[in-house]
Design goal:
19% strand, alpha/beta, 367 residues, seven-stranded parallel sheet, four-stranded mixed sheet
């Protein structure tokens, strides 16, 4: 198969897990096929070894100018290192556009916990577009911090002008915005979004349990999902003004599979606090109350502990490969099935079984 040329916006924990994972699953074929962690080892004939990183952007002084293979291990990244043997990639991390990608309160935290902007001139849009073209980037991943509305729109425009497919891993609504979706369709460029759904994370577990209760005849009364973590993402989200789209994304993902209506005051879902020593570990505390047979009230409480960034990297690998299949087949616009399966806030919300079926159909149709 041809290589898949990938660019990354934001060389944080998620990017670190993704780059490590691509090389972890690119060892000898037999051992990789038997290793857990991927929903598809081969997707449309493409395996992780076909993914080649060719461009990267960040704003941190400890990453800009470094080879991507070094930058993924630089502070303030704190995700687990499960594959240190990433070779030199010959990909220099370029200075990105700052815009609204840093919450003001981050300056109050020690350097090892937060961003520190490189003293390098920020690029103009034309420079970013030119770099994407020069590196022949095919699929561009958005890993900016939550709340980066302006910066996301900046890079989305760059992707459109450079002719790149776009995977929007954060809760800024691009694929689920009709005007942006139309622009990708007009350019015959695929897009998957918005807000990546981890393999077995808080959102997918909450959705599955919510759907189960409804299918078994229960009527949900109220529910919450509280999340804590110690990575830069959780530190960034202490600024509650940046959380509007995040809360909308996570809440809509659960409400979309609920088989009865509940009031806004009866559902609370969102990041709750930053606990530095948790590092990239994410804790979810969940409660669902429902009426069962005879109107008797039951409740379920769950505690889920996951390594946040590796938990999403396998989904990103599949999203990249679905975009490549679309490019191969000249399919543009929102990839509806993959977006519903891989993302929390897609343009069309299917239940998870239907989303998986639609994704498998897309893969089979375009292989």
């Amino acid at each position: 198969m041809a290589e898949i040329r990938v660019g990354i916006i934001g060389v944080g924990n998620c990017a670190s897990s993704l780059v490590q994972g691509v090389h972890y699953y690119s060892r000898d074929k037999e051992s990789c096929e038997q290793t857990a962690g991927l929903m598809h080892y081969s997707l449309g004939g493409y395996t992780p070894r076909d993914i080649k990183f060719v461009s990267a952007f960040d704003i941190d002084k400890r990453k800009v100018g470094k080879d991507l293979s070094e930058a993924i291990f630089a502070e303030p990244n704190c995700t687990k290192v499960f594959y240190r043997e990433v070779p030199a990639l010959q990909v220099e991390v370029k200075m990105g556009k700052v815009l609204d990608s840093i919450a003001p309160h981050l300056w109050q935290y020690p350097e090892e916990r937060a961003f520190r902007v490189a003293k390098v001139p920020e690029p103009a849009k034309e420079e970013v577009v030119e770099h994407l073209r020069e590196t022949r980037t095919e699929v561009l991943l958005n890993y900016l911090p939550v709340g980066s509305e302006e910066a996301t729109r900046f890079y989305t425009t760059c992707a459109l002008e450079a002719g790149c497919a776009f995977v929007n891993c954060i809760p800024v609504f691009i694929a689920s915005d009709e005007s942006w979706a139309r622009r990708f369709a007009e350019k015959r460029l695929p897009i998957i979004g918005d807000d990546i759904k981890s393999q077995v994370g808080a959102t997918i577990v909450h959705r599955v349990l919510t759907n189960l209760i409804g299918e078994r005849g229960g009527r949900i009364i109220r529910t919450y999902q509280l999340n804590t973590g110690g990575n830069t993402d959780f530190l960034n989200m202490l600024d509650r003004s940046r959380l509007r789209s995040k809360k909308t994304s996570k809440t809509d993902a659960v409400l979309s599979v609920m088989q009865n209506e509940i009031g806004n005051e009866q559902i609370h879902i969102g990041p709750s606090d930053y606990v530095p020593w948790q590092q990239d570990n994410k804790l979810c505390f969940m409660r669902i109350e429902w009426e069962g047979f005879g109107g008797v009230v039951n409740n379920l409480e769950l505690r889920l502990s996951v390594e946040d960034s590796p938990n999403s990297a396998g989904v990103a690998i599949d999203a990249i490969r679905c975009c490549k299949l679309a490019l191969d087949n000249k399919v543009g616009g929102v990839l509806v099935g993959p977006s519903s399966y891989f993302m929390k806030h897609p343009p069309v919300q299917y239940n998870d079984s239907r989303a998986r079926e639609e994704t498998e159909h897309f893969i089979a149709q375009h292989t």
